[in-house]
Design a protein that fits this description.
Elements (H helix, E strand, L loop, with lengths): L25 H10 L1 E3 L19 E7 L5 H12 L5 E5 L9 H8 L13 H12 L4 E7 L4 E9 L4 E5 L7 H4 L4 E6 L2 H15 L4 H20 L8 E4 L4 H17 L5 H5 L22 E3 L4 H11 L5 H19 L5 E7 L5 E7 L3 E8 L6 H7 L5 E8 L6 E7 L2 H4 L1 H4 L2 E6 L2 E2 L3 H12 L7 E9 L4 H7 L4 E8 L1 E7 L14 E7 L5 H6 L1
Parallel strand pairs: 2-6, 2-7, 3-6, 7-8, 9-18, 12-13, 12-15, 15-17, 16-17, 17-18
Antiparallel strand pairs: 1-3, 4-5, 10-11, 13-14, 19-20
Helix pairs in contact: 2-8, 6-7, 10-11, 11-12
């Protein structure tokens, strides 16, 4: 965890979905939205290799300059110039002001506190949060109230950016920060223009008086710029004017695009072509001598075979399909529960007799559904684990390359904070594992948040024997997989429309891989 000042921690065994608890004023919320933003034009491509380990960091840009020089404007112009790019985070140094004492707050209200000195910024925390984001891990950044002159208890969760733009007057001052940047920018602006912008901003957005702004500027801001900010321009790779900077931002955007292209990875084709690795026996009976001990397959009793027959039949009506999907989902959830830790417990029965049994030996259990094919498994999981919080991921394939892209992420609070994620057990829900591309990304996201590999239980209806399951097992040997059946086929085909599911969430007019005989498009049959 980058910051131990987080929203109130949830109570064990009574999990709730993550919500942003806040006491910010409307002005503070507006300011935070402007300063710290997560922008998306399309999803986050893979940042890891076939072994599951990260192979590239996020690209980090540091932008420094005087107060009101136009740093945030330059950051947004770069984003605009990038056009169709993956997720971008604009991270403001203003969030990292230190927590103030009552005496310091009194000085701040009288415009007698120096916010422009390096000592006012929590540089170690800023570097720690930025380092986490750069390494593709989640972080929770502090929220600072300019009206209260205080860092609040709440934090803002950030994750998943391919590009991070960190801006602030001291963004190039600290050596630890400079070491994290791939590109360093200094915004040069005329001092009169900066003063005019600062007066307009502080009066309009922060409730200051003109006299207070001028006094603070002359007493602290200008000396700080001369002594600490302007000298950091020597560390910049490029100096950008604070106005009329379209040409400069276009050049910077071109450089960033080139760097991202060089970091691109091609994962889907290799997963689809993995072929059988003798990890799944033909009769689906586990052999202790084999590597597939982390794959649990439901026993093919006559009942299960009957359920699968109904689900595979294309003539099954929707009502029956939903009923039997829910039955199979419940069986899978019950089987998946066997991988959780239990401890002995003795209870007293209504007949006043002791009974020795077990209870769950964990405080934090949650689920994550891969939209929308994982949705049909949610009801079964909720029947087995009461009040379990279930988050979601949306992973789709890029039209041009077929690579998985992370479009949406809404995780339970247990996973959003690393100190809780390290103690959490997570059920990942998806309809099937074909090429395994969506499963690969989902597992990598959880690992980035600090969830231990052996605390991840992947629950699916079907697995393709010759698909990506073998590479998933090799890349993540401690992750448990629970499935209803193993299908032999993974057919390569050309899709004409948008479908759903691992191996089937494809764009129009492009190659895809479909599990055979399969159950069709399970999400469509369940929801439509």
């Amino acid at each position: 965890m980058a910051d131990d000042k987080v929203s109130p921690e949830p109570q064990p065994a009574r999990p709730t979905l993550s919500r942003s608890a806040t006491t910010l004023t409307a002005r503070d919320e507006l300011l935070q939205a402007k300063k710290n933003t997560l922008l998306k034009s399309h999803g986050r491509p893979p940042w890891y290799g076939e072994d599951g380990s990260p192979i590239s960091d996020a690209f980090v840009v540091g932008i420094a300059g005087g107060s009101a020089s136009g740093k945030t404007h330059v950051a947004r112009r770069i984003v605009q110039a990038l056009g169709s790019i993956p997720t971008v985070i604009i991270l403001s140094q203003d969030s990292f002001y230190k927590r103030h004492t009552p005496e310091e707050i009194e000085l701040a209200n009288a415009s007698r506190f120096d916010f422009d000195h390096p000592d006012a910024i929590d540089m170690p925390l800023f570097a720690s949060c930025l380092s986490d984001l750069r390494a593709c891990r989640q972080t929770n950044i502090p929220i600072y109230s300019f009206t209260e002159h205080q860092r609040l208890r709440e934090t803002k969760y950030l994750y998943g950016a391919a590009i991070i733009i960190a801006e602030g007057i001291m963004a190039l001052h600290d050596p630890a920060l400079r070491a994290l940047y791939d590109l360093k920018i200094f915004v040069q602006c005329d001092s009169d223009l900066m003063l005019a912008r600062r007066i307009r901003r502080d009066v309009k957005e922060r409730g200051r008086s003109v006299d207070g702004v001028l006094e603070q500027y002359l007493r602290y801001v200008k000396p700080s710029y001369d002594n600490f900010v302007q000298p950091t321009s020597r560390y910049a790779n490029i100096i950008v004017p604070g106005y009329d900077n379209a040409v400069a931002t276009d050049i910077i955007a071109t450089h960033i695009r080139r760097q991202l292209d060089g970091r691109a990875t091609q994962l889907r084709q290799r997963l689809a072509g993995a072929g059988p690795r003798d990890l799944i026996p033909q009769d689906c009976t586990p052999d202790p001598a084999k590597e597939y001990l982390n794959l649990t397959i439901l026993s093919h009793t006559p009942q299960l075979q009957g359920i699968l027959t109904i689900l595979r039949d294309r003539t099954t009506n929707r009502g029956d399909f939903i009923f039997f999907v829910d039955r199979l989902a419940t069986l899978l959830a019950e089987k998946a529960m066997e991988h959780l830790p239990f401890r002995p417990k003795t209870v007293m029965t209504p007949l006043e007799v002791e009974s020795h049994g077990n209870e769950l030996d964990t405080d934090y259990i949650c689920g994550v559904s891969i939209l929308r094919s994982g949705g049909p498994l949610e009801r079964g999981l909720r029947r087995v684990v009461s009040a379990i919080p279930i988050g979601s991921m949306l992973i789709q394939s890029e039209a041009a390359t077929g690579e998985p892209l992370l479009f949406h992420l809404q995780l339970p609070i247990y996973i959003r904070h690393r100190h809780l994620a390290e103690k959490s057990w997570v059920f990942v829900l998806d309809a099937q594992i074909g090429t395994g591309a969506a499963a690969f990304m989902a597992i990598r996201v959880l690992l980035d948040h600090g969830v231990p590999q052996d605390h991840i239980i992947f629950v699916v209806f079907l697995v393709a024997r010759c698909g990506g399951i073998s590479m998933l097992q090799r890349a993540f040997p401690q992750v448990k997989f629970v499935c209803g059946a193993v299908d032999d086929g993974l057919q390569e085909m050309w899709l004409e429309g948008v479908e759903e599911g691992d191996g089937q969430m494809e764009a129009e007019g492009r190659k895809a891989w479909v599990v055979e005989p399969g159950m069709g498009h399970i999400g469509d049959r369940y929801y439509l």
